[in-house]
Amino acid sequence: MNDVWHDLLRAEPGAETTARSPLQDLTVMMVDDEPLMTALIETHLEDAGYTRFIGCNDPRDALALARRERPGVVLLDLMMPQMSGFEVLEAMRADEALRYTPVIVLTAATGSEARLRALRLGATDFLSKPVDESELVLRVRNTLAFQQYADRALHHDPVTDLPNDRLFTRAIDAALERMPTAGGLVALVSVELPDGRQLRESFGQRAADELARVVAQRLRRFAEHEACTRDPTLPPLARLDADDYALLLEGLASVDAVEAVAKRLLCVLAAPAALSVHEVVPTAWIGVALAPVDGCDAETLRKSADLAAGHARQHGALSVMFASPELNVRSQQRMTLGAQLRGAAGRGELRLHYQPQVDLVHGGLVGAEALVRWQHPQHGLMAPAEFVPLAEEMGLITGIGEWVLGQACRDTASWSHRGLGDLRIAVNVAKPQFLAGNLCAVLRQALFDAGLPPERLVVELTESMLMDDVAAALALMHELKGLGVTLSIDDFGTGYSSLGYLKRFPLDELKIDRSFVTDLPGGRADEAIARAVVELGHNLGMTVIAEGVETEAQRACLAALGCDTYQGFLFSRPLPAEAFVALLESRAAAGAVCAG
Ligand code: C2E
Ligand code: MG
Ligand code: MG
Q: Atom 33 in ligand 1: which residue has the minimum CA distance?
């Protein structure tokens, strides 16, 4: 807290040249019937770096204005014709919301009578008129600093400086209020850390406090990194009791995403902590409650999350439990599935299906997209939507991606050797693969091992992986181009690419997302979008492929728009490797072999 005080006092006269204090962003309100006086004070405060000033020249408006603007301090003139400063002060002290707002009384009256009366009514400090600029700024600063300090003490845990129960409840209320308009889920994560108690019993309070500070630091970093809240003024985390902490999550798209965040938090908290007494590997139990299923108000949500944390405690050293039993069943299933997925490639359970890509001008089969499947021993053939997101969460997607690349390159090379055509093969790359730093090396190795020329490999990227860090993405894309592979942008139109960037990316192909193809022809907006994308792609020197083409009418429309290639159920669904080979063989027999 000492640092807090020191930071607050930075707001000195002429302080705009040094580091700013948070006080300078608080609102200062002045009630004085003389407009000239309010203008003068405003100038003084502005010179001292204060950015929010409200002048009120009619004391009868003061109460309503203060209620709305919640100033950090009110400067109040005593002698005003419409209503005296004493009356304003009295009204403020009787008002629930303004009762504790500091008031500095400005008085020309030298007699102690007026001062005593103002003090009796709850004035915080005095300033004599005419006002000395330096004195004004210092009194405002000190009053605001005391107020902030008291406010902090009231709303924060003294050991960790994390928000306490009071402030956290406000954060939950605000998030719940935003939920209907802001969208996404609101989840309350309750964290129990039993090691604090053990430390307290064996080594005393100081050791327990040390652990609490480590935990607080980890929580803070985590909340910052995960961008848990939409309101920067109300932190989404708290210390609620000696060994109880909480985190508020806002705007997450799915229960799975909430679960993933909770599990990451568990890993972060369970990392070894080097304390003065000895190293501690914290145990943590996490309970998650979701609004509105487990509660529509802060109190009920907290109760639900605490109850879930209690269940987690019974469950084992490091576990996450949901408040609602159905979600726990799902969570267990996902955990089992995740464990099975870990060994799936090694056990030979992954499969590749191939979907043909067809030239829109001459109708020839020119390539295929490799799409992964998991042949699960109990659940049967699983689509990527059922396990790729889980693989990403568990850090398994790079391994799976490498398997896909290797297999796809080998299959494609073997089709050439068998005289079935020199097809190009498109492979989807997941974001973690793109970010892993070794994508180029992995591709080179896969091509080399299979003996496949690089120009036969199409790497499908998505907009979202390119836009996070444009400079890094650009560098990697140039590296990939150097290797000689073709770069395609998948699901184009569903991400948030800026067209300005698109121009700078060394892409070879745009893949129009299925959602724009569905309503062709006739869907006027879709037709306009499809036409624009085709034109855009061609103007930037790219070829354009449409995906999800299901009807002849869609195909004809795309052909008329000048689109180059398509894939979709119309020509063929994705086929198991053997069926795809059979298709190639039948076309080869008919003399329609692709020469690449
Ligand atoms: P995607 O890359 O956009 O693949 C196209 C998806 O659309 C495939 O779904 C395909 O079966 C489906 N599709 C193709 N033609 C039609 C059609 O005419 N109508 C309809 N309704 N759907 C059509 P699938 O195979 O379920 O794959 C879904 C997504 O999973 C892929 O979308 C891709 O993002 C991802 N994925 C697939 N394989 C891999 C992989 O090896 N690695 C990674 N990272 N992601 C993969
Ligand atoms: Mg794709
Ligand atoms: Mg796609």
A: 428
